[in-house]
Structures are given as structure tokens and as C-alpha cells.
Amino acid sequence: MKKKKRIVIALGGNALGNTLPEQMKAVKTTARAIVDLIEEGCEVVVAHGNGPQVGMVNNAMIALTHEDSSQPNTPLSVCVAMSQAYVGYDLQNALREELLNRGIHDIPVATMITQVRVDENDPAFLTPSKPIGKFVDQEQAKALSEKYNYIMKEDSGRGYRRVVASPKPVEIVEIETIRTLVDAGELVIACGGGGIPVTRSGNHLKGASAVIDKDFASCMMAKELDADFLIILTAVEKVALNFGTPSEKWLGDISIEEAKQYISEGHFAPGSMLPKVEAAVDFASSKAGRTALITLLEKSKEGIQGKTGTTFHL
To answer: Which of 5, 14, 25, 73 is an active site residue?
Structure first.
């Protein structure tokens, strides 16, 4: 029997929407694209971002402390855990429904609440830069800073936002459980939002005030699961050089060496396309035969067939 291609898909925010109604609608489209890959004979593991979702949860928890002064502030790590369950709930139900609609009854769907260990000495903790939550004015920013010890920064004239660290993932705590489920033929949703950031002290795992880039976490999971493909889904069909300029050039199949050169030349925006390309390079260079793909959600099937997207290989 021909071995199935094992694929880790990193879903971007456009695959999930920005509000609860948007998400419930978006996951149906997302589920169709994922099940298309399963019908192509692929074994799929799903990771996803949580930018809007964790911000909503965080804002709701802050509102709770204002309504009830006896309620302590909710740590960001707990907000990430809540967002994993919230997104996973909608996503696994949409995937289950799509599988059953196509007569596929032998693939269970499960969401794994996933902790990802980070290094407490990661330099990212010294320079928090990842914005989270809503914009507030200067007076509100000062109050949040004093009450919760938040680091608040002004953002391009639009107001102040909380910023947190974005350390690199070091270990996926539940990887053995994820591997067992995937090997058993289940469709697993894991590492949501890059994972719940934790640091280790002896046997104790402590939540960290941080967010982990979901593309780096997805790359780590893909390597740990010995995947054949890492598909990073974003808002464009291909990666571009000189994006948005008259000399814009879309990239198809490129080597690791070419990608590293483009990175060194500064072609990709930090916090946007750069981490996606870096994660793609990391995965594709980790073992012969591994391929990374960056493309649109609806083009993922054509992408693994080599018809579109930007692919990275040794």
C-alpha cells in the first residue's frame, strides 16, 4: 500500500475570520480545502494562528476584572489556552461535518490543547514587540501598565497597545500524544496560536507572558512528526520579491540557498512574510525529501501537486 504524504498545515488568520460569526463561516471553507487534501491521499495535521481570538479573550478577561474586583487578572498563557479550545471547537466540528458529508467515516478529529516550552532566557523577553489586544488612549495605557504591569507602546498614531515577547519554541510538550493520535489515523489540530507558552522549573511548567509564532511552532511539529510537507497558508498565492512595487516578482520553486539570499537582502517583512519564509527554510533544509509550501488556502491542493505556490527544497 502506498504510504500517505504526511502534511502539517499552518492556517493563517484569513482561514479563521476575526469574530465569532466570521470564524464559524470561515472554518467551513477551511474544512473543505483540508478534506480535499485528505481525498488526495494525504495525512493531515492542522496548526493555526490565534491573533484576533486571543485578543478577544484577553479583552473579555480584563472586562471581567473591571466588573468584579475580586477576579484576578487572567495570565496571557491561559488566554492562549482558551483560544486554542475556542478555535479547535469550531474547526474540529467543521472538519468532522465535511468528512461525513463526503462519506469519510473512519477519520476521527481531535483538538490537542498544546503547551510549547520556551527558554526563559530567550532575548525576546528583553524586547517585547508583539502587539496584542485593543488600542487604548494614553491614559488607559498608563492605567493598564500600573495595574497589571503591562508594557504598553504607541502604535503608528493609532493609540497604545500591549506588547509581549515572541520567543522561539524549544519543545512541544504533548508531541508524543500528538504523534500517537496521528499514527492512529486521526486528524489532529494542535499547536494552536503557536502553543501555550510555558517555561520549565524542575517538573513544573509555568505559563509565560508571551506568544509564539505559529509558523515556527508548526515547523517544529512538522519535523517532530517526520512530515513530508509543511504548508504555510497566507493571504497571497506566492511569495514575492519587491512586494507591492513595480519590480514585484513572484517566486515559484526555489532552493534553500536562494531563499537564504533573499532573506539576507531584506525582501521579506518582519512579523509578516519573514517568519513564514524562515520556517519554510528551516523545515525544507532539515531532511532530504522534505518540502515547504507557502500559498493560499484554496490553492493548497494545487500547491502540493506542484502547480502553484512557492515551494522550498534542498
So the answer is: 14
pLDDT digits (tens, 9 = 90+) for 220-243: 999 999 999 999 999 899 999 988
- Interior/surface letters 278-293, b for 16+ CB within 10 angstroms, e for the rest: bbbbbbbbbeeebbbb
Examine the residue annotation and report whether 130 is marked as an active-site residue of this protein.
yes
Annotation says 3 is catalytic: no
Catalytic, out of 12, 50, 58, 214: 214
d(CA 171, CA 310): 28
Q: Cα–Cα distance between 35 and 42 in angstroms, integer?
A: 9
Helix, strand or coil, per DSSP, at residue 280? helix
Let me know if 214 is a catalytic residue.
yes
User: Which of the residues 58, 88, 194, 276 is marked catalytic?
Assistant: 276
CA separation for the pair 101, 67 (Å, rounded): 44
**pLDDT tens sequence across 158-173:** 899 989 999 999 999 9
